[in-house]
């Protein structure tokens, strides 16, 4: 498999440290609010990567942290702790906020068919591990205490900006105007490993440490948590592109200084989902959540399809129109799968089936090209093979794509099989619309479609005719 590696800035052949095994780490959510669908784009694409690696036969271990302490409102160690901000907003304790939004995050993941990683570790569970690592960095001369806080000394490194590929705006994060410079830092790129003094005295969660009562910086948690569960050598580290700097840059600085050797070989970064106004943000009033999509009548899996239709390294533009198109495509796909006869796979289709499988794998082997993998799925529906073979291939591909196609199709079949009150009226209206379209009376056809929409009926036009569901 070729995978784009932010470290080398090229598509590299994936070669794990240990044959057949992949150790994978994902930066988890900061649980001070609901995840927006931009955050979830990153988790969907990381989920596809994990599932594809398993599909390709690797034994994968994936670890994710939950950031429930230490992530300040600016990634450059300034501002307020995001968790504290959430707690104040909702008049709750930090741990209540963490529990509520962690559960909400996994509920969103379930709606989007995102698998829970093998290990999920809240940062507040690992305070002793953070302290050990910070102590080690001080002993090795990579960290210093100033003004009560412990800082990583970036001047001790041969190379700090390992990814190279940053927006100017990203690079300015440590020196942004209007942000008070931290007088304790020896170099502007130094970052906090452990806080005991900050501008806010009301930090709720504090722990004893050799440097006084305090709490960890955000970056140290991912280094220490991955070390705890994955050991000293890691294969793939994932996150949204905004994590590349300063978060991942700092993770590499402290992990490799602590370990004394290279730590992680491949860095997988997902570009952002933007809305018309630009970057998505949780601080804007109503932000886009999975619940909001559901309230508006969208299936979360239509959003998953929307994400899969474009490459993870391209910025994706969200609009309701784009999502509606994905919903229509998803409904059609389910309708086509539901129309397949439920029969066993036909061994006579072997060669064609192998070819279809190969194009699916070729797509994903080429830097996780999910849009081509979705095309391979459509090719199955068009192929000259039996319905049973089509179903088998769709089930196989969906182990990776996780669009829930067979499940949705069987639900649809059940709905169609069990007539409900009012079905006859709807059938009659759908037939009248088809007649109107045939007679080129489009105004009438549209009127009927609107009437059905009012009744909560979704029409799906396919080459084989129009189907409907509630
Ligand atoms: P956070 O909860 O802020 O720590 O972010 C969780 C994940 O979402 C991180 O991997 C971020 O890099 C990623 N992320 C943040 N904003 C976006 C976005 N608009 N599109 C895609 N991923 C994002
Ligand atoms: Zn992280």
Task: Please describe the structure with a list of short key phrases separated by commas or semicolons.
18 strands, 470 residues, Four Helix Bundle (Hemerythrin (Met), subunit A), four-stranded antiparallel sheet, Rossmann fold, five-stranded parallel sheet, 16 helices, alpha/beta, binds zinc ion, binds adenosine monophosphate, globular
Task: Walk me through what this model shows.
The protein is α/β, with parallel strands linked by helices. It folds into 3 domains: 2-270, HUPs (Rossmann fold), CATH 3.40.50; 283-417, Cysteine-tRNA ligase, C-terminal anti-codon recognition domain (Four Helix Bundle (Hemerythrin (Met), subunit A), Up-down Bundle), CATH 1.20.120; 423-469. Helix content is 45%, strand content 17%. It has 16 helices and 18 strands. The strands form 6 sheets. A 5-stranded parallel β-sheet has the order 7-4-3-12-13, with helices on both faces. A 4-stranded antiparallel β-sheet has the order 8-9-10-11. The longest helix has 19 residues, at 37-55. The chain is globular and about 80 Å long. The model is unreliable at 172-178 (pLDDT under 50). Residues 27, 29-30, 38-39, 41-42, 67, 239-240, 242-243, 270, 272-273, 280 line the site of adenosine monophosphate.
Brief overview, please?
The chain is α/β, with parallel strands linked by helices. The chain folds into 3 domains: 2-270, HUPs (Rossmann fold); 283-417, Up-down Bundle (Four Helix Bundle (Hemerythrin (Met), subunit A)); 423-469.
């Amino acid at each position: 498999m070729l995978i784009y590696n932010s470290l080398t800035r090229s598509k590299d052949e994936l070669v794990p440290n240990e044959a057949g095994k992949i150790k994978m780490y994902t930066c988890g959510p900061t649980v001070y609010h609901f995840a927006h669908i931009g955050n979830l784009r990153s988790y969907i694409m990381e989920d596809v990567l994990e599932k594809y690696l398993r599909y390709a036969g690797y034994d994968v271990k994936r670890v994710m942290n939950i950031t429930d302490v230490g992530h300040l409102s600016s990634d450059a160690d300034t501002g307020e702790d995001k968790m504290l901000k959430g707690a104040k907003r909702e008049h709750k304790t930090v741990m209540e906020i963490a529990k509520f939004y962690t559960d909400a995050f996994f509920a969103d993941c379930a709606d989007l068919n995102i698998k829970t990683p093998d290990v999920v570790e809240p940062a507040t569970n690992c305070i002793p591990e953070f302290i050990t690592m910070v102590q080690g960095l001080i002993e090795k001369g990579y960290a210093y205490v100033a003004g009560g806080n412990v800082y990583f000394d970036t001047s001790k490194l041969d190379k700090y900006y390992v990814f190279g590929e940053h927006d100017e705006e990203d690079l300015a994060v440590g020196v942004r105007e209007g942000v008070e410079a931290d007088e304790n830092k020896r170099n502007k790129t130094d970052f906090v490993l452990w806080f005991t003094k900050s501008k806010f005295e009301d930090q709720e969660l504090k722990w004893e440490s050799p440097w006084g009562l305090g709490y960890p910086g955000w970056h140290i948690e991912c280094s220490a948590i991955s070390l705890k569960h994955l050991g000293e050598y890691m294969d793939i580290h994932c996150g949204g592109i905004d994590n590349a700097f300063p978060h991942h840059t700092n993770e590499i600085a402290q992990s490799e200084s602590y370990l004394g050797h290279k730590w992680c070989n491949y860095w997988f970064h997902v570009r952002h989902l933007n809305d018309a106004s630009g970057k998505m943000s949780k601080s804007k009033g109503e932000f886009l959540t999975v619940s909001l999509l559901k309230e508006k009548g969208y299936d979360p899996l239509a959003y998953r399809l929307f994400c899969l239709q474009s490459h993870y390294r391209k910025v994706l533009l969200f609009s309701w129109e784009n999502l509606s198109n994905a919903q229509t495509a998803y409904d059609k796909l389910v309708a086509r799968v539901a129309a397949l006869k439920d029969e066993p796979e036909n061994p006579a289709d072997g060669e064609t089936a192998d070819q279809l499988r190969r194009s699916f794998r070729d797509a994903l082997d080429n830097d996780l090209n999910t849009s081509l993998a979705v095309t391979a799925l459509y090719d199955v529906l068009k192929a000259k093979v039996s319905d049973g073979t089509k179903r088998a291939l769709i089930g196989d591909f969906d182990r990776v794509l996780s669009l829930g196609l067979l499940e949705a199709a069987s639900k649809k079949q059940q709905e169609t099989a069990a007539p409900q009150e009012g079905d006859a009226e709807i059938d009659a209206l759908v037939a009248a619309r088809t007649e109107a379209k045939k007679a080129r009376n489009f105004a009438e056809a549209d009127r009927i479609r609107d009437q059905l929409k009012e009744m909560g009926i979704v029409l799906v036009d396919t080459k084989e005719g129009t189907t409907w569901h509630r």
